[in-house]
Specification:
single chain, alpha+beta, 102 residues, 3-stranded antiparallel sheet
Length: 102
């Protein structure tokens, strides 16, 4: 009995450090909402954004399930596809958020 408890403790101590970083990275990222001059339009296939601001803005789509699209940079007056539509893997878009392009 002592050997199985010791083995279980050893296995747990070896596995636990590898399990923790994955759980931490699964936490949703917090994004500041995009300014109101950036307008989102969602269709079944794509989500697009129009930058009606005077400045360049980088935005990402935040979906209802908490997932985010890649960051897209839009100069003033630009309209671009910024994410998938509501039939995609993450469902409906919730809002646009400011992001840092990589």
């Amino acid at each position: 009995m002592k050997r199985s408890v010791a083995t279980t403790g050893l296995v747990t101590s070896l596995i636990l450090p590898f399990a923790l970083p994955g759980a931490a990275s699964a936490a949703p990222r917090a994004f500041e909402a995009a300014p109101s001059c950036v307008v989102m339009h969602e269709s079944w296939r794509y989500t697009s954004a129009a930058n009606n601001c005077a400045d360049t803005v980088s935005v990402a789509v935040v979906y209802q399930d908490g997932a985010t699209s890649p960051c897209r940079t839009l100069p003033p007056g630009a309209v671009s596809t910024v994410g998938e539509g509501y039939l995609g893997e993450h469902g409906h878009a919730d809002h646009l958020a400011v992001c840092e392009p990589s």
